[in-house]
Amino acid sequence: MITRVTLERREQEWLAPYAIKSAETKGRFYSEKEHDFRTAFQRDRDRIIHSTAFRRLEYKTQVFVNHEGDHYRTRLTHTLEMSQIARTIGRALRLNEDLIEAIALAHDLGHGPFGHAGQDALSELMRQHGGFEHNRQCLRIVEKLEESYSGFPGLNLTFEVREGLKKHARKWIPSLEASVVDFADSIAYNGHDLDDGLRAGLLEVAVLDKIKLWQEVNRYIKEKALSANSAIKIKIAIRLLINRMVSDLVSETAKKIKKFRIQKPRDFSQVGSEMVVGFSKDVEKKVLDLKAFLMEHLYHHYRVVRMTEKGKRFIQELFRLYVVRPQQLPPQVLKRVKEDGLHRAVCDYIAGMTDRFALDEYNRLFSPYERV
Ligand code: MG
Asked: What are φ and ψ of residue 183, in 5° steps?
């Protein structure tokens, strides 16, 4: 049998000196006995996967609202794709893959329904009441709102995982593991948003020739995969694109680790982890170019804007309705009003909704013939 102690020993042997070791965790807020055969970070990963907030990711929007089609990325599939990318990068750099996986799987738990429209709507509605920001909300979920244990609120995750989720903090000094997750996030959405945009017909292949990274992968396709049909060519292109970003990030970061002589975790306090984990200058420029393209042609596409603005209206109206007469809230939410105040409790309730639940709730409350 492989015990936790064996795994911890393996971490000492396998991982780089600058990787965070699970045996050296700064621990949990409420102390608990360690598990027999899972490390502290593996246990965190499992707690996140078993949480209610994680299951809700399946019906939350990434870019395309859930009912637009079955093949678009949802927050859940985005999370899984990005977690896989993050683990690949982490493993190549001999970082702690379990810590990376835990941070990655939790990173989007704080998003409300309808993607960024949800974030914008809630942050406007909460302006006078302490604000709303999805990274902050993510921490609130894992530290307080999830109810799974009798002895404490939240999931009682280790310090390292919670710290990896603090992207909202003004002076966020992420570990190398958390930095890798952050980069993997943008690598994942740059790739799959392009893919979804093409699938939805909002982007056309001919226009993509404006993107420098696309020109590069296209050159390869013209040489090596000319006979493939156009759908396969798109898949090859997206794959190559992701691989280009991941490979560059790994080799560039390995170079920086050497250059700055990073010998132990957080050895980068002189330079900052953002100086250590990153793309080469050339690829960094091309990634910015790709992001600008997506912003202009996909995220600001009139159909995407219509989709998300519609979501925003549902949220605004639900919020106002609950605040005007809180007795319309279900008892478990009403109970929280006493503890957190009316606006925060309503905000938590709406932020926790999936697109589907928000639409059903809207129907129940605004459609005259719907049962409440
Ligand atoms: Mg994300």
From this structure: -70, -40
